[in-house]
Amino acid sequence: MHVPTRLRRAVAVVCATALATSPLLVAPTTAGAASAATPTARAAMPHLTATLTKKTIRVKGADRLRAGRVHFAVKGAGIVEFVTFDKGYDVADFTRDVNRFGAKNDMKALKRAIRNATIIGGFAGGGSGTIVFPRPGAYTPFAIGQRGVVTGKTLVVRGPVRSSSAPRTDGRILAKRGLAWGGASTLPANGRFLFKNKRSAAVPHFVVLQQVAAGTTTDQVLQFLQSGEEGPPPSWVLPGSMETGSLSPGRSMTVDYDLPPGQYVVMCFFPDPEMQGMPHALMGMLRMINLT
User: Fold this and answer.
1) How far apart are CA 256 and CA 247, in angstroms?
2) CA distances, 174 to each of 114, 130, 150, 185, 292 (Å)
3) 45 lies in a domain?
4) Is the model's pLDDT at 10 over the cut of 70?
5) What is the per-residue pLDDT across 121-153, written as a single tens digit (0 to 9) for each?
6) pTM score, two decimals?
7) Across the chain, what does the average pLDDT equal?
8) How many angstroms separate the CA atoms of 32 and 117, rounded?
9) What does the alpha-carbon distance between residue 175 and residue 196 come to, in Å, rounded to a whole number?
10) Mean of the pLDDT values across residues 250-263?
11) Is 29 in contact with 78 (CB distance < 8 Å)?
């Protein structure tokens, strides 16, 4: 299993750029869309598909799109997410701030991006699930690559909000106040979970699931992350892994997944704006769960 020594710069609003000096615990994403996700549950929803290239993001299925829940799938190498901006702040501002943070670890730029942008979720290439456009307005697909932010054409989502129930899920993963995880301690190895970033969490979060050997503790993982060690990963790091796009506080999405059974550590590597961009996992945002 290949484990890069630098965190992949394609996770969320500014996350991976903050991690350029930290070793990567997770392997390249191996999870596919879960076969348990039923076509019937998705039939009432619009379907969006984003294709990520080195220079742009192409989105299909956005014609006459209304606010509400949509099924979203991603193709390409990287994570595609949707973001909407406060009045007076736009995609050019966002791109400049994210790139400035990535290049110079500029905390003012990081805070400005978080304060003025609402991220509503997304998926890695090959992944899928549902996201919610909460209200009519403009939403921009973006990814963060080796050369900084890549964006696609902004979608105009119209009203009124279309009513649509969330698909059935097998459990929840909750990002909570105090850089803590909650929700299910056991999930099926193939299924769908609800990821919710609670409003009280106050900052964006995303989910990394990394398979580890049975009996591995969060203390072991934290010690490795904080050590800054490069080279081969520890023997307790196993191949199964996946990650999601980010969610701003108060947002949720459903995530389809298919992973090997076993023990997993749940992590978030979003950079903390009050701790000079330190990734949340290095601050102890870790939890062990089991996939059966």
Assistant:
1) 16
2) 20, 16, 28, 11, 19
3) yes
4) no
5) 999 999 999 999 999 999 999 999 888 999 999
6) 0.88
7) 88
8) 28
9) 6
10) 98
11) no
- How long, in residues, is the chain? 292
Q: Is 232 exposed, middle or buried (0-12, 13-18, 19+ CB in 10 A)?
A: exposed
Query: Under 8 Å CB-to-CB from 151, ≥6 apart: which residues?
Result: 56, 57, 91, 95, 140, 141, 142
For residue 129, the one-letter residue type is: G
Look up residue 204 and give its amino acid: P
Give yes or no for a contact between 226 and 220, defined as CB atoms under 8 angstroms apart.
Answer: no
The dihedral region occupied by 181, where left means phi > 0, alpha psi between -120 and 50, and beta the remainder, is beta
- Whether the pLDDT of residue 43 is over 60: the answer is no
Give domain status of residue 3, yes or no. Answer: no
- CA 170/CA 276 separation, integer angstroms: 36
Q: Are 225 and 281 in contact (CB under 8 A)?
A: yes
Alpha helices in 117-249 (DSSP H): 218-227
How far is the CA of 172 from the CAs of 63, 193, 253, 254, 265, in angstroms? 31, 5, 10, 9, 15
The values of phi and psi at residue 278, to 5°, are: -65, 130
Q: Which amino acid is at 132?
A: V
The answer, yes or no, to whether residue 31 has pLDDT greater than 80, is no
Distance CA(260)–CA(28), nearest Å, equals: 14
Average pLDDT rounded to a whole number, residues 191-197: 98
Query: Which SS3 state, helix, strand or coil, does residue 92 take?
Result: helix
Q: Is residue 25's pLDDT more than 90?
A: no
Query: Which three-class secondary structure state does DSSP give residue 124?
Result: strand
6 in a structural domain: no
- Asked if residue 4 is part of any domain, the answer here is no
pLDDT in tens, 209-230: 999 999 999 999 999 999 988 8
Give kind and range of the element (H or E) at residue 112. helix 107-116
Number of domain units in the chain: 1
Structural domain range at position 85: 15-291
